[in-house]
Amino acid sequence: MTPIHVIILAVVQGLAELLPISSSAHVIVTAALLHENMSTPANALLLVLLHTGTMFAVIAYFWRRWAQEFFASWKRFWSFFRLLFLGCFLSGVVALPIIFAVDRILGRPGHPAQIEVLFSKLNWIAPALAAAGILTLWAGLREARRPETAAAKEAGRGHVGRGLAAIMGILQGFAIPFRGFSRSGATISGGLLGGGERGAMESFSFAMAVAITPLAIAREVWRLHKSVAATHATFAVGMSTGLLGMACAFLAGLVALRWLSSWLESGKWYWFGAYCLAAAAVTQWIYMHGALGLPR
After folding, report:
1. Is residue 143 within a helix (H) or strand (E), and if so which, with residue range?
2. Mind listing the pLDDT tens digit for each residue in 106-115?
3. pTM above 0.70, yes or no
């Protein structure tokens, strides 16, 4: 992949990853327009390194807030850790059986597929985008009818109970295997529908994302290492282009986080849902007409 293609994908990833519109779906469609296949081991590694860039953007953006909410005392940290563990554990409980089932459904007898094959299947991405759009639109419209006061936002900051952590963890589990089902859109919307406050749901949602990203990176590095087509040269090239993309995704991610926070706090969350529904319709049209030459 050329450096200019990497930069384009990194900017798309950085903006879309931290907005509730599914970065993977946007990166896959953009890559198809550039005639790049993101299901190859090297490009799948690039996709994870782009996620790494946005992970560091999340840490940089939320660090001061997390320090006040979760690290102010040992008691707060322990409470936060238990909730984070609960959410991520439930994500794994939901995601792993789905990944196993998809591997069997899309594979051949004795030769299970890899979940990354979904990176090129627009007919799976479109309904996932639509599902995320409906959830985000529902939560956003409900929130718009009950705007928060400054006192309510302050009282709710950092407060996430077991029920909300479980809801957000389960929704994150569905988002992990299905490209198009926005992780941030699903988890924040689920938290809002569960009665959570905007700032607290945003903060905990991205804390869960930071917790699971290293596992995704390790998986893709191992997958590339085991690939028949992978060589030391392939890995070196993939890492060099990936680091360039990671830096660009970091900068784009910081811009996206400011945008997301502003719209969430001003009651415009539902606009992201409307966008996802429109993106689902466009993705389905592209698939039906074979416009990008992706496998059907």
Report:
1. helix 122-144
2. 665 555 455 5
3. yes
